Amino acid sequence: MQLVAVVIGLALMEYVWFSMRCGQVRGRSDVAAPAMSGDPEFERALRVQYNTIEQLVVFVPSMLLFGFYVDGIAAAGVGLVFILGRYLYARAYWVDPANRGPGFLLTVLSNAVLLLGGVVGAIVSYAT
Asked: Nearest-CA neighbor of 89 among 59, 61, 66, 63?
């Protein structure tokens, strides 16, 4: 489970980086809080941050379930794919949102494997 914790920590660090970038772009763009729009670059950075929050809500507990009930090393591997997917998604979205598909797909598939595997693992564990 230590690897699971490390990968969750890396995913959260990636999110913090996205948040810091969003703040930097807000400052550069002169979009004063509480405004959430007004500059396309800021709006793209904000969407990356928000979408990452949405994905982390599923990712973190799913990683824990999968790591506990299935296998920690496999969970860490799938978690690294999630982090890569988030990175690819962010880089594409910042440049051209139309190209965010591959990163989003890696993110969603990783979450699906972790969630479904974790739930099935818990059910099997309960049944035995």
From this structure: 59
Domain around 23: 2-127
Q: Is there a contact between 85 and 75 (Cβ–Cβ < 8 Å)?
A: no
* Residue bearing tokens 């997917």: 85
- As for how many domains the chain has, the answer is 1
How does pLDDT run across 19-42, given as a tens digit for each residue? 999 999 999 998 988 989 999 999
Q: Residue 64 belongs to a domain with what CATH number?
A: 1.20.120.550
Query: Angle at Cα 126 formed by Cα 108 and Cα 111, nearest 5°?
Result: 5
In the predicted model, is pLDDT for residue 4 greater than 90? yes
Evaluate whether 8 touches 79 at the Cβ level (below 8 Å).
Answer: yes
The CA-to-CA distance between both ends of the chain, in Å, stands at: 22
Q: How many CA atoms lie within 13 A of 30 on its CB side?
A: 0
Distance CA 3, CA 7 (A): 6
